[in-house]
């Protein structure tokens, strides 16, 4: 994209940084999601790194690992997800990275499930052309079901 902001392959050494970024309490509240270290590492090792159907990118800003963006299959649909370290928020990084990522992930329709209260993420998606396509209540985790309202966002 630019010298300051670019997408790079994910390497093993980036995983501890991603893990720390998703531990932040405010981020966890926004995304209504968090994994313990063991579960986080197992997920990335078993379902992401070795899975060629998953597109995974490290977001690099000013030479630092700012976060990650991925796309994957869920219930027969293609889905995008992302996470930025808190110190990188509020600079338009997610919007710019998603716009670029959509050139790499060209499946349409493409979906995102975003907590209804996650206004920042909803704005990012809307700015990249996603529209609301429904609402689901209750997400299924390894450890049960919670009652978070998730907005389904769709890019056609
Ligand atoms: C959601 C997230 C990716 C946003 O990244 P970001 O780089 O800060 O977003 P941008 O700077 O591109 O901002 C996009 C829009 O959201 C708005 N926004 C950013 N933070 C906001 C906040 N806390 N509350 C309300 N609006 C917010 C921005 O003002 C901007 O809108 P505008 O262009 O109309 O001003 C980042 O906060 C994050 O990683 N959060 C934790 C994990 C998460 O929620 N992942 C998404 C799961 S679906």
Walk me through this protein's architecture.
The structure is a single chain. This protein is an alpha+beta fold and 156 residues long. It has one domain (5-155): Aminopeptidase (3-Layer(aba) Sandwich). It is 32% helix and 38% strand. It is built from 5 helices and 7 strands, in the order E-H-H-H-E-E-E-H-E-H-E-E. The protein has helices at residues 15-23, 25-31, 37-49, 93-104, 119-127; strands at residues 5-9, 55-61, 64-74, 77-84, 110-115, 131-141, 144-155. The strands form 2 sheets. A 4-stranded antiparallel beta sheet has the order 1-2-3-4, with helices on both faces. A 3-stranded antiparallel beta sheet has the order 5-7-6. 22% of the residues are buried. The mean pLDDT is 93. It binds coenzyme A. Residues 27, 30-31, 82-84, 89-95, 112, 114, 118-121, 123-124 line the site of coenzyme A.
Number of domains: 1
Please name the CATH topology: Aminopeptidase
Unreliable stretches (pLDDT < 50, length at least 5) are none
- How large a portion of the residues is in β-strands, by DSSP E? 35-45%
CATH class identity: Alpha Beta
Radius of gyration over C-alpha positions, nearest whole angstrom: 15 Å
Give the helix/strand class: alpha+beta
Q: Kindly report the spatial arrangement of strands forming the biggest sheet.
A: 1-2-3-4
Q: Whole-number average pLDDT?
A: 93
Topology as a string of helices (H) and strands (E): EHHHEEEHEHEE
Relative helix content: 25-40%
Spatial separation of the terminal alpha carbons = 24 Å
Query: What is the CATH superfamily label?
Result: Gcn5-related N-acetyltransferase (GNAT)
For the sheet with most strands, the description reads: 4 strands, antiparallel
Shape: globular
Number of helices: 5
């Amino acid at each position: 994209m630019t010298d300051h902001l670019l997408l790079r392959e994910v390497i093993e050494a980036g995983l501890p940084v991603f893990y720390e970024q998703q531990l932040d309490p405010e981020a966890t509240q926004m995304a209504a999601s968090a994994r313990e270290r063991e579960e986080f590492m197992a997920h990335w090792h078993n379902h992401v790194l070795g899975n060629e159907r998953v597109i995974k990118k490290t977001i690099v800003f000013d030479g630092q690992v700012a976060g990650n963006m991925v796309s994957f299959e869920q219930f027969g649909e293609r889905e995008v997800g992302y996470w930025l370290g808190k110190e990188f928020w509020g600079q338009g990084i997610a919007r710019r990275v998603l716009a670029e990522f959509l050139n790499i992930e060209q499946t349409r329709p493409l979906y995102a499930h975003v907590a209804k209260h996650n206004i920042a993420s909803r704005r990012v998606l809307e700015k990249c052309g996603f529209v609301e396509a429904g609402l689901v209540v209750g997400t299924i985790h390894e450890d049960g079901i919670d009652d978070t309202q998730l907005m389904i966002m769709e890019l056609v």
